[in-house]
Amino acid sequence: MGTSTPLAVVSGGAGGIGGAVCAALSRDGHRVVALGRDPSRLARLARPVEGRVCDVTDEAAVAAAVAEIAAHEPISVLVNSAGTAESAPLHRTTLEAWNTHFAVNATSAFLLTRAVLPAMRERDHGRVVFIASTAAHAGTPYTAAYTASKHAMLGLARTVAAEVAGTGVTSNAVCPAFVRSPMTERSVRRIAERTGRGPEDAERALAEAAPLGRLVAPDEVAAAVSYLASGAAACVNGQSLVLDGGGIQQ
Ligand SMILES: NC(=O)c1ccc[n+]([C@@H]2O[C@H](COP(=O)([O-])OP(=O)(O)OC[C@H]3O[C@@H](n4cnc5c(N)ncnc54)[C@H](OP(=O)(O)O)[C@@H]3O)[C@@H](O)[C@H]2O)c1
Predict the structure, then answer these.
(1) pLDDT tens by residue, 22-64
(2) CATH of the domain at 27
(3) Which of 20, 143, 170, 214 has a CA-to-CA distance to 183 between 20 and 30 Å?
(4) Which candidate, 236, 250, 218, places its Cα nearest to that of 20?
(5) 51 lines ligand 1 (CB under 6 A)
């Protein structure tokens, strides 16, 4: 490892969780590059976090972004936080929705991790953190595409961990229950529209889905990522850190 500022790349870095992760890694002393599709959202990121447009479901775009970002310094930390979530009962889940969930939630993490891992292994140092979900551990109604894609993401995290075991590289997942973020705000709006409940009622239903009984704060997810990305977590590999207040059996 060199002595220069370590470099972290965060997919979905302009999102609710990704933004908190970028800020935490920046405070921890990393140079942080956030990846996203929307340039205006990336431009709103607080400095010194840098934004780079990249559709992380696009193989060529991911390869180009990683080559450019890692051209002058190696990537020490990759956080896979890009994600999408829609809900529907299985019989109304379209193939398009299924494919989109897999592309954004699982394939993007595969493409990015595959792109950064060889250099991490060569340097014998690296941290890969996957923002999965409690949906990576359990099935709930109306979430087939999301839940299956998050199970796939956790499977990828565990497989990478098995491949890097015993090296200076680690691969772990963070699995929060509902987090206070734009993704959850969209879910609350959809539930309110479909059920006629008020937004507060709809939010309470999501919060009560986990033993925690409230939404997880983005900073609580970021703190877990910060730990897993740190030197202190060198012996932690292949784990899924569930943030739901207790209850998920792993
Ligand atoms: N919110 C929750 O309750 C919750 C709970 C557990 C796990 N998670 C997971 O945590 C992660 C972050 O969620 P969040 O709550 O922060 O959601 P969010 O605020 O909606 O952020 C998601 C981010 O993903 C980016 N993204 C989506 N598709 C992309 C693509 N093809 N290429 C590049 N970036 C893309 C979006 O940026 P652009 O639109 O600019 O591309 C957006 O910034 C997701 O994987 C989610 O499944 C969320």
Answers:
(1) 999 999 999 999 999 999 999 999 999 999 999 999 999 999 9
(2) 3.40.50.720
(3) 170
(4) 218
(5) no
